[in-house]
Amino acid sequence: MSSTSRIWGECQESTDFVSYEHKNNDAHYFIGFFKTLVDPKALNDHILDCVTKNPEASLNDLYHLIPLAEKEISHESNHVKNKLLQGFVAIQQGLDANVCLLAEAALFKGRDVSTPEIEFTVEGPKEAFVESLGINLYLIRKRIPYPEFRVKELVVGSISKSKIAICYIEGLTNEEYLHTVRQRIEDIQFDQLSDITLLQQMIEDNSNSVFPQTIGTERPDYATWAISSGQVCVLLDGSPIALFAPVTLGSFFISYEDYYLPWIVGSIVRLTRMLSVVFSIFATPLYVAMITYHGHGISNIYLPTLISSRISVPFPPVVEVLTMELVIELLREAGARLPNKIGQTIGIVGGIVLGTAAVEASITSNFLLIIVALSALASFTTPIYRMSATIRILRFPFIISAQLWGILGIAICGFAVITHLLRLTSLGMPYLVPFYPFRPSDLYDSVIRAPYTNFNRRFSFFRSTNPIRFDKHKKARKDIDE
Q1: Closest to 256 (Cα-Cα) out of 358, 121, 162, 365
Q2: A Pfam family for this UniProt protein (predicted)?
Q3: pTM recorded for the entire structure
Q4: Beta strands 88-93 and 215-217: pairing type?
Q5: Among the residues of 124-165, which ranges form H helices?
């Protein structure tokens, strides 16, 4: 290990580094730390107070006397410098000593646990993850007071030194999935990981696909449900989102609020959500195909209304549709980038003003305006944002295909999407399971939400080492009045 003077000299290039010599009788201690990373109360009450009250103590004695959990004695200079950058205080006895005592006194600052902002639900817990890894692990561990719950920490990023926590239940989570996630994280060669969405793109099976292969959530209850189902959860220090995998396509259309509702109500809400997604993708492409190629398929009841709404529009249907879709995307993007109150005003006023002006200026028909507005609303029913963005993008190739070949073009584009989905995997697991490969026993929580009596087994495609949740045939106690 390098001497104190050399380590201190390198660190003092930063003006927030504090180092000084502390004398106790004949003992000279050299103490150094970054004042922006250290909690002054912990420094004064636990470290400096201990050093002052024990003038004859050696480093080994101080190691046992300092009332802090995180402390160690190190001989490696690089390790000492890394610990200093993590909020540790370094104590060295003698200028040329080759051993250093490190005690953690890190200053933790961040926002308190608040309500979810993206996945808000009417019923259920109102806690959301924050940017502190320690708090996020607490929110999960208090919901899983299980001795086999494991947390494995890794450090990724040559500059950011980002802490990553892999959470799973030993004896339940499949070891192959766990090994795959850990190996992909360890293989990352990147300097700065500022958010877990960067990590999400780096560990997915196919980073060139528009379909996400991992799910991100800000809800601790959703993350703990995934862990108890046999999935692997990943957290990043500095990010309020938890990732879990493997996942299926159907997982992106399931809101965790479905499980807080009666199973019949939850099933109806889930079916409504899935039908809304189908409508959002195919409504405008079908409009283009019917108007351009298949006008004879339009009912005579609606034909006069459709003709009167388009009679003054000079553009072909595809130009009309693409123009309105782009306007909707502009309003959505502007509303997302502006402050909340201004963004809501821009979205409402802009939609009304632009819609009315577009119809009066004969740029679009009022019939199409209704379809585009309903498609935009339907796309918001997707509970996972990344899948919502995918659905919005999918509409454009379908619209272009409908313009080229009509309904046949929609079928060709749909066949291409299905082919891609059949080849897609999440941690090696087929993306379309339980529909392909077909698993009849796993259909109980796919399109509909089954009663909890049917949740006695975990999904077989997670290949859990403990697939049984509870004994379904165990006889329950009778009520007193029976």
Answers
A1: 121
A2: GerA
A3: 0.85
A4: unpaired
A5: 133-141
Q: How many CB atoms are closer than 10 A to CB 85?
A: 13
- Residues ≥6 apart with Cβ < 8 Å to 12: 19
How far apart (Å, rounded) are the C-alpha atoms in residues 213 and 17? 43
Element (H, E) at 350: helix 340-360
| Helix extents (H) in 77-172 | 77-84, 133-141
Q: What angle do CA 60, 63, 66 make, to 5 degrees?
A: 145
Residues 6+ apart with CB under 8 A from 344: 335
234, 164 Cβ separation under 8 angstroms: yes
441-452 per-residue burial string, b: 16 or more CB within 10 A, e: under 16: ebebbbebbeee
Pull the structure tokens for residue 107. 């200053």
Token digits for 281? 């993708």
- Rounded CA separation 58/94 (Å): 11
Q: Residue 211: which of 15, 426, 446 has the closest Cα?
A: 426
What whole-number distance in Å separates Cα of residue 19 and Cα of residue 227? 45
Query: Which residues, 6 or more positions from 472, have their beta carbon under 8 angstroms from its beta carbon?
Result: 453, 456
Return left, alpha or beta for 302; rule: phi > 0 is left, psi -120 to 50 is alpha, else beta. alpha
Instruction: Give pLDDT tens digits along the chain (482 positions).
Output: 555 567 777 887 888 888 888 776 666 788 889 988 898 888 888 888 888 888 778 888 888 888 888 888 888 888 888 888 888 999 887 766 778 889 988 887 778 888 888 888 888 888 999 998 989 999 999 999 988 999 999 999 888 888 999 999 998 999 999 999 999 999 998 888 889 999 999 999 998 999 999 999 999 999 999 999 999 999 999 899 999 999 999 999 988 888 888 999 989 999 999 999 999 999 999 999 989 888 777 777 777 877 777 788 888 889 988 988 888 888 787 777 777 666 666 666 677 777 777 777 778 888 888 888 888 888 888 888 889 889 989 999 999 999 999 999 999 999 999 999 999 999 999 999 999 889 888 888 888 888 888 888 888 888 888 888 887 776 556 656 55
Q: Which of 462, 428, 443, 474 is nearest to 172 (CA)?
A: 462
User: What is residue 468's three-state secondary structure?
Assistant: strand
Residue 416 tokens, joined: 């291409």
In order of 35, 95, 107, 263, the CA distances from 43 in angstroms are 10, 21, 10, 54
Contacts of 19 (CB under 8 A, 6+ apart): 8, 11, 12, 30, 31, 32, 33
Question: Which two structure tokens, joined as six digits, stand for 87?
Answer: 């909020």
Query: In the chain, how many H helices and how many E strands?
Result: 16, 12
Tokens of 145: 């007071």
Identity of the amino acid at 328:
I
